Amino acid sequence: MTASDASPPQPASRRIAQALRSAIERGELSAGDRLPSERALAEEYGAARNTAREAIRLLAEQGLVTAKHGRGVFVREPQRLFRFGSDRYSLRNRETGLTPFRLEASRQGKTARIDVLSIRRAVPPPGIAERLKVSADEESVVHRENHYFADDEPVQIVSTYLRWAEAQGTALTQPKTGPHGIYGRLEELGHTMTRVRDEISARMPTPEEARLLELPPGVPVLEVLHTSLDQDSEPFEVSRYVHRADLTGLLYELPVE
Amino acid sequence: MTASDASPPQPASRRIAQALRSAIERGELSAGDRLPSERALAEEYGAARNTAREAIRLLAEQGLVTAKHGRGVFVREPQRLFRFGSDRYSLRNRETGLTPFRLEASRQGKTARIDVLSIRRAVPPPGIAERLKVSADEESVVHRENHYFADDEPVQIVSTYLRWAEAQGTALTQPKTGPHGIYGRLEELGHTMTRVRDEISARMPTPEEARLLELPPGVPVLEVLHTSLDQDSEPFEVSRYVHRADLTGLLYELPVE
DNA sequence: TAGTGGTCTAGACCACTGG
DNA sequence: CAGTGGTCTAGACCACTAT
């Protein structure tokens, strides 16, 4: 009550947050460092513990720090990004036999794991039905759901939708899809990929996604709705990618016009 | 204390949040509706106000609801998205004289406004210098900063960087850049755009960005680092877009291989 | 066991909005 | 003005982590 009476229309929690933010930016606290405990901050700033806690919440919301129960609050380490984009579907990648995900993981010295969660005939969600040009009122698709891990850390969730009429009875309904993966099988069915359309958005995760991706608070997801078009400009495959935004960058390189 | 004693190791705040989330999903609360007040929720669930408040915070963090001071907490309205992407730089758009932003705004019946905040010779940030292939140790670029509004609501912040050596003394250092904008002037300087490279990421906003974009809590930003390449595959323009993720979708349509 | 964050209580005052 | 969210206090107990 004695020191800084003059100016601050700023709430105490914001002032504490700002002080910590400055300390991080000035390098007094660097990536991986532990912040003072909530109780210590409260005493230092003459505030209640809840107020110090609110300050830390503000930083966590921005993705600057992460709390570890029983251990402390730590400055978040910048993570090397997985990069995906225009070459995600390229033939070059398919010829190496390495999927873009495995390629990226090995580039980072990490072990890739891909879990096939389920392969089911299903009624497509409306957005999917529209893009794949199938009926949204019947079980018109095969839904393949995969989870991708790097060193056992979840990185992305992918749902792939294919026409049931085409996939029925083929390897497309099996966990092992054979050489060149699903695109190999789809090519045999007469679909040569000539164009792709990726629709990208970002949002906060649902609780379900936060759980599956083990997302710390303050980390959004990148959602990519991907459509593959064949030689007749007809869609033959639609996938929905949900990426951890703190581990993923997208790269699109394309000719103009 | 009488009803559901058996199971819940769930914290009360999460249980309240889950109840509200279900009500929203079941349509009992729809977009624009007001939630019960914090005090009412506290009483209804036999909890302290702070606990009800925590529940609302969980929903706000997910982007499901927004609090309005003095009015209440409301279920967030889904917003129509501004869509940008592979055609953002296309000649077709330049020929109409309408920028993609103005086009999108008019498509939505909104009034576009573009504020030129500053045009300055500057030392480029490291990431920019690297992509534009200029020195990061001197004032080697012109930095143009623009803010984009739709019906006076901020939608995106754009920083464009050009080589000072080229831009010096041209309309590129002026607010009005003339026919076809900066790309028109750059073409006169011998740079025909043949390829673009867009690097996309998502993250929570800095406090500065939250202020400028008037971002409600729980809304991330989409960041696009754009590089224009000319006929010699040399970069001649780099821009950094920061979009409100709840108002923006990106669309990339491109040929494979 | 001591120290950390996670949750919660029962108050209080302030700032903003609407009738 | 009454009602709302925004902030804050000073406690309390729990759950987790290290030593």
Instruction: Name the CATH homologous superfamily of the largest domain in chain A.
Output: Chorismate lyase-like
First-last Cα distance of chain A: 65 Å
Residue runs with pLDDT of under 50 for 5 or more positions of chain A: 1-8
What kind of oligomer do you see?
Answer: homodimer
Number of strands of chain A: 10
Helix content of chain A: 25-40%
| Helix-strand makeup class of chain A | alpha+beta
CATH topology of the largest domain in chain A: Chorismate lyase
Largest interface between protein chains, with number of residues from each side: A-B, 43 and 44 residues
Q: What's the overall geometry of chain A?
A: elongated
When the domains of chain A are counted, the total is 2
Strand content of chain A: 25-35%
Overall pLDDT level of chain A: 89
**The CATH top-level class label of the largest domain in chain A:** Alpha Beta
The helix count of chain A comes to: 9
Give the key terms:
homodimer, 257 residues, alpha+beta, Arc Repressor Mutant, subunit A, Chorismate lyase, 2 domains, 6-stranded antiparallel β-sheet, two-stranded antiparallel ribbon, 28% helix, elongated, disordered N terminus, DNA-binding
Task: Give a description of the structure.
Two copies of one chain form a homodimer. With 257 residues, the first copy, chain A, is of the alpha+beta class. Chain A folds into two domains: 3-75, Arc Repressor Mutant, subunit A, CATH 1.10.10; 81-251, Chorismate lyase-like (Chorismate lyase, 3-Layer(aba) Sandwich), CATH 3.40.1410.10. Chain A contains nine helices and ten strands. Chain A has a six-stranded antiparallel beta sheet with strand order 4-5-6-9-8-7. Chain A has a two-stranded antiparallel ribbon with strand order 1-2. In chain A, a hairpin with a 5-residue loop joins strand 8 (221-229) and strand 9. The longest helix of chain A is centred in the N-terminal third of the chain and has 14 residues, at 12-25. The N and C termini of chain A lie far apart (65 Å). Strand 7 of chain A pairs antiparallel with strand 10 of chain B, so a sheet runs across the interface. Chain A binds a DNA duplex (19 and 19 nucleotides) through residues 11-13, 37-39, 47-51, 53-54, 56, 67-73.
